Amino acid sequence: MKNKHILVTGGSGFLGSHLCERLLELGNEVICVDNFYTGAKRNIYHLLDNPRFELVRHDITFPLYVEVDMIFNLACPASPIHYQRDPVQTIKTCVHGAINLLGLAKRINARILQASTSEVYGDPTIHPQPEEYWGNVNPIGVRSCYDEGKRCAETLFHAYWLQCNLPIKIVRIFNTYGPRMHPNDGRVVSNFILQALQNRDITIYGDGQQTRSFCYRDDLIEAMIRMMDTPDEVTGPVNIGNPGEFTILELAELVIELTGSKSKIVRRPLPSDDPKQRRPDTAKAEKLLKWQATTPLREGLTHTIAYFDKLLKEEPDFCTQ
Protein backbone atom coordinates (compact mmCIF):
# COMPACT_ATOMS: atom_id res chain seq x y z
CA MET A 1 0.00 0.00 0.00
CA LYS A 2 1.67 3.21 -1.17
CA ASN A 3 0.97 6.40 -3.12
CA LYS A 4 -2.64 6.39 -1.93
CA HIS A 5 -4.79 9.19 -0.54
CA ILE A 6 -6.16 7.79 2.71
CA LEU A 7 -8.70 9.09 5.24
CA VAL A 8 -8.33 7.93 8.86
CA THR A 9 -11.22 8.90 11.16
CA GLY A 10 -10.36 8.85 14.83
CA GLY A 11 -6.83 9.50 13.60
CA SER A 12 -5.54 11.24 16.74
CA GLY A 13 -6.55 8.40 19.03
CA PHE A 14 -4.44 5.58 20.41
CA LEU A 15 -4.70 3.28 17.40
CA GLY A 16 -5.57 5.94 14.83
CA SER A 17 -2.36 7.91 15.42
CA HIS A 18 -0.22 4.80 14.99
CA LEU A 19 -2.13 3.91 11.82
CA CYS A 20 -1.57 7.42 10.39
CA GLU A 21 2.12 7.14 11.22
CA ARG A 22 2.46 3.75 9.56
CA LEU A 23 0.55 4.79 6.42
CA LEU A 24 2.85 7.78 6.03
CA GLU A 25 5.89 5.55 6.42
CA LEU A 26 4.54 3.43 3.56
CA GLY A 27 4.48 6.49 1.27
CA ASN A 28 0.82 7.52 1.40
CA GLU A 29 -0.94 10.85 1.88
CA VAL A 30 -3.10 10.86 5.00
CA ILE A 31 -6.04 12.99 6.10
CA CYS A 32 -6.55 12.57 9.85
CA VAL A 33 -10.08 13.42 11.05
CA ASP A 34 -10.94 13.67 14.74
CA ASN A 35 -13.24 15.66 17.02
CA PHE A 36 -10.83 15.13 19.97
CA TYR A 37 -13.48 13.69 22.27
CA THR A 38 -10.98 11.04 23.36
CA GLY A 39 -8.18 11.61 20.86
CA ALA A 40 -5.22 13.79 21.80
CA LYS A 41 -3.27 16.24 19.67
CA ARG A 42 -0.09 15.15 21.43
CA ASN A 43 -0.45 11.83 19.58
CA ILE A 44 -0.03 13.45 16.17
CA TYR A 45 2.08 16.57 16.90
CA HIS A 46 5.11 14.90 15.37
CA LEU A 47 3.21 14.39 12.10
CA LEU A 48 2.00 17.96 11.58
CA ASP A 49 5.11 19.09 9.69
CA ASN A 50 4.85 16.20 7.25
CA PRO A 51 3.65 17.63 3.90
CA ARG A 52 1.72 14.40 3.23
CA PHE A 53 -0.28 14.70 6.46
CA GLU A 54 -3.40 16.83 7.00
CA LEU A 55 -5.38 17.25 10.23
CA VAL A 56 -9.10 18.07 10.11
CA ARG A 57 -11.22 18.67 13.20
CA HIS A 58 -14.59 17.14 12.42
CA ASP A 59 -17.33 14.99 13.96
CA ILE A 60 -18.33 12.13 11.64
CA THR A 61 -21.95 12.33 12.76
CA PHE A 62 -21.99 15.18 10.22
CA PRO A 63 -21.23 14.61 6.52
CA LEU A 64 -17.65 14.92 5.34
CA TYR A 65 -16.54 15.83 1.83
CA VAL A 66 -13.04 14.77 0.78
CA GLU A 67 -11.47 12.94 -2.15
CA VAL A 68 -9.52 9.84 -1.14
CA ASP A 69 -8.81 6.29 -2.31
CA MET A 70 -9.35 4.54 1.03
CA ILE A 71 -11.09 5.15 4.34
CA PHE A 72 -10.22 3.64 7.72
CA ASN A 73 -13.07 4.29 10.16
CA LEU A 74 -11.72 4.23 13.73
CA ALA A 75 -13.89 7.06 15.07
CA CYS A 76 -15.63 6.07 18.31
CA PRO A 77 -14.72 6.14 22.01
CA ALA A 78 -13.65 2.57 22.74
CA SER A 79 -13.45 2.28 26.52
CA PRO A 80 -16.49 1.91 28.80
CA ILE A 81 -15.65 4.97 30.88
CA HIS A 82 -15.75 7.13 27.73
CA TYR A 83 -18.51 5.57 25.64
CA GLN A 84 -20.86 5.36 28.64
CA ARG A 85 -20.39 9.07 29.41
CA ASP A 86 -22.66 10.02 26.50
CA PRO A 87 -24.39 6.85 25.27
CA VAL A 88 -26.61 8.68 22.76
CA GLN A 89 -23.59 10.28 21.10
CA THR A 90 -21.80 6.90 21.09
CA ILE A 91 -24.67 5.34 19.16
CA LYS A 92 -24.76 8.31 16.77
CA THR A 93 -21.03 8.00 16.15
CA CYS A 94 -21.36 4.29 15.37
CA VAL A 95 -24.50 4.53 13.24
CA HIS A 96 -24.72 8.05 11.78
CA GLY A 97 -20.96 8.04 11.38
CA ALA A 98 -21.07 4.78 9.43
CA ILE A 99 -23.88 6.10 7.22
CA ASN A 100 -21.96 9.29 6.43
CA LEU A 101 -18.70 7.52 5.66
CA LEU A 102 -20.34 4.79 3.59
CA GLY A 103 -22.14 7.50 1.61
CA LEU A 104 -18.81 9.24 1.06
CA ALA A 105 -17.14 5.98 0.01
CA LYS A 106 -19.95 5.24 -2.43
CA ARG A 107 -19.76 8.72 -3.98
CA ILE A 108 -15.99 8.63 -4.54
CA ASN A 109 -15.72 4.84 -5.06
CA ALA A 110 -13.31 4.40 -2.16
CA ARG A 111 -12.48 1.20 -0.33
CA ILE A 112 -13.58 1.47 3.31
CA LEU A 113 -12.62 -0.43 6.47
CA GLN A 114 -14.68 -0.52 9.65
CA ALA A 115 -12.85 -0.95 12.94
CA SER A 116 -15.41 -3.08 14.75
CA THR A 117 -14.90 -4.76 18.09
CA SER A 118 -14.94 -8.01 20.01
CA GLU A 119 -17.71 -6.37 22.06
CA VAL A 120 -20.14 -7.48 19.33
CA TYR A 121 -19.86 -10.93 20.95
CA GLY A 122 -21.05 -9.57 24.31
CA ASP A 123 -20.52 -11.99 27.20
CA PRO A 124 -19.78 -14.99 24.95
CA THR A 125 -21.17 -18.47 25.47
CA ILE A 126 -18.66 -19.87 22.93
CA HIS A 127 -14.93 -19.82 23.62
CA PRO A 128 -12.80 -18.80 21.80
CA GLN A 129 -15.03 -16.63 19.63
CA PRO A 130 -15.14 -17.35 15.87
CA GLU A 131 -16.57 -14.82 13.43
CA GLU A 132 -19.60 -17.06 12.85
CA TYR A 133 -20.72 -16.64 16.48
CA TRP A 134 -23.64 -14.20 16.68
CA GLY A 135 -22.94 -13.08 20.21
CA ASN A 136 -24.69 -12.77 23.56
CA VAL A 137 -25.38 -9.04 23.91
CA ASN A 138 -27.74 -7.23 26.28
CA PRO A 139 -29.44 -4.60 24.05
CA ILE A 140 -30.38 -2.35 27.00
CA GLY A 141 -27.35 -2.82 29.25
CA VAL A 142 -24.80 -0.21 30.27
CA ARG A 143 -22.47 -1.32 27.46
CA SER A 144 -25.13 -1.64 24.76
CA CYS A 145 -24.64 1.84 23.29
CA TYR A 146 -21.23 0.63 22.09
CA ASP A 147 -21.95 -3.08 21.56
CA GLU A 148 -25.13 -2.56 19.55
CA GLY A 149 -23.81 0.55 17.85
CA LYS A 150 -20.89 -1.43 16.45
CA ARG A 151 -23.18 -4.33 15.51
CA CYS A 152 -25.43 -1.94 13.58
CA ALA A 153 -22.39 -0.41 11.85
CA GLU A 154 -21.37 -3.87 10.67
CA THR A 155 -24.88 -4.39 9.31
CA LEU A 156 -24.71 -1.10 7.43
CA PHE A 157 -21.34 -1.97 5.91
CA HIS A 158 -22.61 -5.37 4.82
CA ALA A 159 -25.76 -3.80 3.32
CA TYR A 160 -23.70 -1.35 1.26
CA TRP A 161 -21.64 -4.25 -0.05
CA LEU A 162 -24.74 -6.27 -0.97
CA GLN A 163 -26.77 -3.41 -2.41
CA CYS A 164 -24.10 -1.09 -3.86
CA ASN A 165 -21.19 -3.48 -4.43
CA LEU A 166 -19.07 -1.15 -2.29
CA PRO A 167 -15.63 -2.60 -1.42
CA ILE A 168 -15.88 -2.92 2.36
CA LYS A 169 -13.68 -4.48 5.04
CA ILE A 170 -14.66 -5.28 8.63
CA VAL A 171 -12.20 -6.19 11.39
CA ARG A 172 -13.22 -7.08 14.93
CA ILE A 173 -10.55 -5.77 17.28
CA PHE A 174 -9.87 -7.57 20.54
CA ASN A 175 -8.12 -5.97 23.54
CA THR A 176 -5.22 -3.91 22.22
CA TYR A 177 -2.63 -2.01 24.23
CA GLY A 178 0.57 -0.03 23.81
CA PRO A 179 2.06 3.47 23.96
CA ARG A 180 -0.40 6.37 23.47
CA MET A 181 -3.23 4.66 25.31
CA HIS A 182 -5.26 7.32 27.08
CA PRO A 183 -4.21 7.28 30.76
CA ASN A 184 -7.78 7.80 31.97
CA ASP A 185 -9.66 5.42 29.69
CA GLY A 186 -10.44 2.93 32.44
CA ARG A 187 -8.91 0.02 30.52
CA VAL A 188 -7.26 -2.69 32.52
CA VAL A 189 -3.74 -2.33 31.07
CA SER A 190 -3.48 1.45 31.50
CA ASN A 191 -5.16 1.28 34.93
CA PHE A 192 -2.79 -1.37 36.25
CA ILE A 193 0.34 0.31 34.89
CA LEU A 194 -0.49 3.75 36.29
CA GLN A 195 -1.48 2.29 39.66
CA ALA A 196 1.73 0.24 39.80
CA LEU A 197 4.02 3.10 38.77
CA GLN A 198 2.55 5.20 41.60
CA ASN A 199 2.64 2.31 44.11
CA ARG A 200 -1.13 2.59 44.56
CA ASP A 201 -3.44 -0.36 45.14
CA ILE A 202 -4.17 -2.27 41.92
CA THR A 203 -7.91 -2.70 41.55
CA ILE A 204 -9.29 -6.02 40.33
CA TYR A 205 -13.01 -6.40 39.69
CA GLY A 206 -14.50 -9.70 40.79
CA ASP A 207 -12.16 -12.58 41.61
CA GLY A 208 -9.71 -11.72 38.84
CA GLN A 209 -10.26 -15.02 37.04
CA GLN A 210 -12.02 -13.40 34.06
CA THR A 211 -9.76 -13.68 31.03
CA ARG A 212 -8.61 -11.35 28.27
CA SER A 213 -6.30 -11.62 25.28
CA PHE A 214 -3.96 -8.68 24.79
CA CYS A 215 -2.73 -7.66 21.35
CA TYR A 216 0.15 -5.19 21.01
CA ARG A 217 -0.56 -2.11 18.89
CA ASP A 218 2.07 -2.86 16.18
CA ASP A 219 0.55 -6.27 15.48
CA LEU A 220 -2.94 -4.77 15.23
CA ILE A 221 -1.92 -2.00 12.82
CA GLU A 222 -0.19 -4.50 10.55
CA ALA A 223 -3.34 -6.64 10.43
CA MET A 224 -5.56 -3.66 9.55
CA ILE A 225 -3.31 -2.66 6.67
CA ARG A 226 -3.19 -6.23 5.37
CA MET A 227 -6.98 -6.43 5.58
CA MET A 228 -7.36 -3.27 3.52
CA ASP A 229 -5.06 -4.78 0.88
CA THR A 230 -7.11 -7.98 0.45
CA PRO A 231 -9.12 -8.61 -2.76
CA ASP A 232 -12.60 -7.06 -2.97
CA GLU A 233 -14.32 -10.37 -2.27
CA VAL A 234 -12.73 -10.49 1.21
CA THR A 235 -15.12 -8.36 3.25
CA GLY A 236 -14.87 -9.84 6.75
CA PRO A 237 -15.62 -9.67 9.53
CA VAL A 238 -12.19 -10.93 10.58
CA ASN A 239 -11.07 -11.21 14.19
CA ILE A 240 -7.86 -9.33 14.98
CA GLY A 241 -6.22 -10.08 18.30
CA ASN A 242 -3.75 -12.18 20.21
CA PRO A 243 -5.09 -15.64 21.09
CA GLY A 244 -2.83 -15.84 24.14
CA GLU A 245 -5.19 -15.81 27.13
CA PHE A 246 -4.44 -14.38 30.58
CA THR A 247 -6.51 -13.88 33.69
CA ILE A 248 -6.82 -10.34 35.00
CA LEU A 249 -5.01 -11.48 38.14
CA GLU A 250 -2.08 -12.77 36.07
CA LEU A 251 -1.90 -9.43 34.27
CA ALA A 252 -1.82 -7.53 37.57
CA GLU A 253 0.95 -9.72 38.93
CA LEU A 254 3.02 -9.30 35.75
CA VAL A 255 2.64 -5.51 35.81
CA ILE A 256 3.78 -5.42 39.44
CA GLU A 257 6.81 -7.55 38.53
CA LEU A 258 7.82 -5.44 35.51
CA THR A 259 7.44 -2.12 37.33
CA GLY A 260 9.03 -3.28 40.57
CA SER A 261 5.99 -1.79 42.28
CA LYS A 262 5.03 -2.02 45.94
CA SER A 263 1.35 -2.01 44.99
CA LYS A 264 -1.08 -4.41 46.62
CA ILE A 265 -4.01 -6.03 44.82
CA VAL A 266 -7.50 -5.12 46.05
CA ARG A 267 -10.84 -6.41 44.81
CA ARG A 268 -14.05 -4.59 43.86
CA PRO A 269 -17.47 -5.85 42.64
CA LEU A 270 -17.63 -6.91 38.98
CA PRO A 271 -19.29 -4.29 36.70
CA SER A 272 -22.55 -5.08 34.92
CA ASP A 273 -22.30 -7.07 31.66
CA ASP A 274 -18.51 -7.42 31.98
CA PRO A 275 -17.47 -10.44 29.84
CA LYS A 276 -16.02 -13.37 31.77
CA GLN A 277 -13.97 -14.67 28.83
CA ARG A 278 -12.63 -12.99 25.75
CA ARG A 279 -10.26 -14.68 23.31
CA PRO A 280 -10.32 -14.52 19.51
CA ASP A 281 -10.35 -17.41 17.12
CA THR A 282 -7.83 -15.98 14.63
CA ALA A 283 -7.88 -18.79 12.06
CA LYS A 284 -9.40 -16.51 9.40
CA ALA A 285 -6.78 -13.80 9.92
CA GLU A 286 -4.02 -16.38 9.68
CA LYS A 287 -5.46 -17.77 6.44
CA LEU A 288 -6.67 -14.60 4.69
CA LEU A 289 -4.05 -12.11 5.88
CA LYS A 290 -1.12 -14.45 6.49
CA TRP A 291 -0.97 -12.71 9.86
CA GLN A 292 -0.70 -13.56 13.51
CA ALA A 293 0.20 -11.53 16.60
CA THR A 294 3.88 -11.97 17.40
CA THR A 295 4.61 -9.60 20.29
CA PRO A 296 4.73 -11.40 23.67
CA LEU A 297 2.76 -9.76 26.48
CA ARG A 298 5.89 -9.21 28.57
CA GLU A 299 7.61 -7.35 25.72
CA GLY A 300 4.59 -5.22 24.85
CA LEU A 301 4.00 -4.31 28.49
CA THR A 302 7.64 -3.24 28.85
CA HIS A 303 7.21 -0.70 26.01
CA THR A 304 3.87 0.47 27.41
CA ILE A 305 5.24 0.88 30.95
CA ALA A 306 8.12 3.00 29.60
CA TYR A 307 5.61 5.25 27.82
CA PHE A 308 3.47 5.79 30.92
CA ASP A 309 6.51 6.28 33.14
CA LYS A 310 7.68 9.11 30.87
CA LEU A 311 4.15 10.57 30.67
CA LEU A 312 3.84 10.60 34.45
CA LYS A 313 7.09 12.54 34.78
CA GLU A 314 6.38 15.04 31.97
CA GLU A 315 2.59 15.51 32.23
CA PRO A 316 1.42 14.33 35.66
CA ASP A 317 -1.81 16.33 35.48
CA PHE A 318 -2.83 14.47 32.29
CA CYS A 319 -2.44 11.17 34.14
CA THR A 320 -4.56 12.13 37.16
CA GLN A 321 -7.34 9.60 37.63
From TrEMBL:
Biological processes annotated in GO: D-xylose metabolic process; UDP-D-xylose biosynthetic process
CC per GO annotation: cytoplasm
Cofactor dependence: NAD(+)
Keyword annotations of the record: Cytoplasm, Decarboxylase, Lyase, NAD
InterPro entries the record matches: Epimerase_deHydtase, NAD(P)-bd_dom_sf, UXS-like
Any matching Pfam family: Epimerase
Sample GO molecular function, one term: UDP-glucuronate decarboxylase activity
Superkingdom field: Bacteria
Localization (cell): Cytoplasm
Coarse class of the protein's main subcellular location: cytoplasm
Sequence ranges assigned to domain NAD-dependent epimerase/dehydratase in this UniProt record: 6-241
PANTHER family linked: UDP-GLUCURONIC ACID DECARBOXYLASE 1, UDP-GLUCURONIC ACID DECARBOXYLASE-RELATED
Protein name: SDR family oxidoreductase
Taxonomic source organism: Victivallis vadensis
